C-alpha cells in the first residue's frame, strides 16, 4: 500500500511541476487533494481502483460541498473513504488571526504547512463581495508605495494554498455548499494580494481552473481579476489561457517616475506594457482593462500627470481606478489631497475615461490596497 501511495505522489508531483513537497503533503506524508484539478483527481481515483465517476463525486464533495474530511462523503464506499483517509488529506491553510474592520472588511492571516504566512481579505460592497487573495509569500518587485514590497519574496504559493484562501473565506461566511449566483456573498475574486501572480503562473492557472469549474466552486471568469505590475511576456498568455479580467498596476504615465516607484518598469517600460495591453485577448469596450493608479502627493498627482495618462491610454479600452494612498508604518509617501484627486479625476473624465475614486476599505486593520504584509522570512539553507 505504501508503494501505491508513493507512486501516486510521484505522478501528482510530476503533473504539478513546480509544487514543493512541503506544500502538498502533511507532516504524516499525506497528499493534499485540495488544489488538485479534475484530471488529477481522476488520476488518483483510477490508481486506487475506482472509476472516473467516483473522481467526480470526490470533486463535488471537495469543491461544491466544501467538506473537511472523507467520512462526510456519504455516497462513496466505506472502502474508498478508508483508503483516502490512509494516504490523503483535505487540508486548508490555517487562520491564525481574523480581523474585521469597522466598514465590514475582513482580513485573515493565514499560516501554511511550513509555517510561512500570507494574508487574504474580504471586501464587502453594495452589489458584490470580493475576496482578495495572495499568490506569493512576500514579493520580489519592491514597489516603493506598497507595504508588501518591503517584504522579501519568501516563496510562491501552490494551487492548494491559493484555492485554500478562498475556501477558508467560504468557511468563515458559511457559504457551503456552493450557493446559487443570486445568493452569493462571496461573488468575486481578485488576485491583488501579496505577490505578483504572473511570476507564479502555473499554480495560479491551476487555481483559477479549479475556482471557475462549473460543477465546483463555480466562480465566473468574468468575476475574477488578475492584477499585474506589468510582467509583459506573460500578459498575452494570461488572456489566452485563463480568459479572466486584467488589471495593471500603473501609477504613472511617465517612465522616469514609474521606474522610481516601480523598479519593474526598468525591465518592462511603458511602451512595451501598453503594447501588451492593446493586444490583450478579449479586450473590448465591454471588457476593459483596469488600470490602478495610487495617488502620491507631489509625485504623480499633477494635472500634467493626468494629461499624460489620457494620452497613454488613448487606444486602450480602459477604466482607471484612482486609489488614495493607504499609509503604513514607515511609508515614504503621503496621500494626495482630495482636491488633487478630484482635479485629476476631472481631467480623465473630461477626456471620456471612466475614473472612479476608490473608497479605502479596511484601513484600520491594514487591509487596504498596498497594506498587506507578514513576518515570514526566507529560510536560509546551508550546505
Characterization of the model:
- The chain has helices at residues 2-16, 21-24, 38-47, 52-65, 78-87, 159-173, 201-212, 232-241, 255-261, 264-267, 270-278, 303-312, 338-350, and strands at 31-32, 88-89, 94-100, 106-111, 117-124, 129-132, 136-137, 155-156, 188-191, 224-228, 245-249, 289-295, 318-324.
- By secondary structure, the protein is of the alpha/beta class.
- The chain folds into 2 domains: 2-89, DNA polymerase, domain 1; 94-365, TIM Barrel (Alpha-Beta Barrel), CATH 3.20.20.
- It has a 9-stranded mixed sheet with strand order 3-4-5-6-9-10-11-12-13, covered by helices on one side. It has a two-stranded parallel ribbon with strand order 1-2.
- α7 links the parallel β9 and β10.
- The longest helix has 15 residues, at 2-16.
- Residues 1-7 and 9-23 have low confidence and may be disordered.
Features:
13 strands; disordered N terminus; DNA polymerase, domain 1; 383 residues; 9-stranded mixed sheet; TIM Barrel; single chain; 2 domains; two-stranded parallel ribbon
